[in-house]
Amino acid sequence: MKLKSVSTKIAILFLVFTAVFTLFRSSMSGIFSLFYAKNGIPNANISSIKSFQNIGIVFGLLPAGYLADRIGRLKVLALSSLVIATSFFILILFRNFFFFSAAELLYGIGLALNSGTLLAYVTDLQEQNKIAPSSKLMGMQVIVLNLTTLIGGNIGTWLFGIKDTAPI
């Protein structure tokens, strides 16, 4: 019974972190797109700019687990926060296609480092408690990701309507 309790706690922790991170990411995505439009970027170019976030996610996810194992979970989380903060700093200071694209790339890398560290942490918890990875948990993660993306996008659009001078 104790193993089932630990497994449930790990699953809930993982799903809550997934929900919080996805809610933040999807909220910011809507805000960024509207911010770019407000700064004179055409819709076609906004799509190009947003694609850099996906490229950054790929580049960030590849080393995330390795870095988390090598230098530690907290250091990688701090690094991801620094990379995300740098992307916001670029958005505030520079207002053109090139810098918006660079900021999205960094933002994607920061998000991926954060997400990869979460996966490494959850995997550690499962290994420490001798719990096999669960396909049911992965299915729940997809549901949580979809719901929080939907909710976050709407929140981001609503928040942008309140204050649209900077993406923070």
Description:
The protein is an all-alpha fold and 168 residues long. The protein has five helices and no strands. The radius of gyration is 17 Å and the shape is globular.
Summarize the structure.
The chain is mainly alpha-helical and about 170 residues long. Helix content is about 90%, strand content about 0%.
What's the arrangement of secondary structure elements?
Layout: H1 2-38, H2 43-71, H3 73-93, H4 97-128, H5 135-162
The biggest sheet, with number of strands, parallel, antiparallel or mixed sense and barrel status, is: none
How many distinct helices? 5
Mean pLDDT: 80
SSE class: mainly alpha
Number of strands: 0
Radius of gyration: 17 Å
What sequence of helices (H) and strands (E) makes up the elements? Answer: HHHHH
Q: Using the alpha-carbon principal axes, give the shape.
A: globular
Beta-strand portion reads under 5%
Q: Which residues form runs of ≥5 with pLDDT under 50?
A: none
Helicity level, as a percent range? over 70%
Distance between the termini: 46 Å
What attributes characterize this protein structure?
single chain, 168 residues, mainly alpha, 5 helices, 88% helix, 0% strand
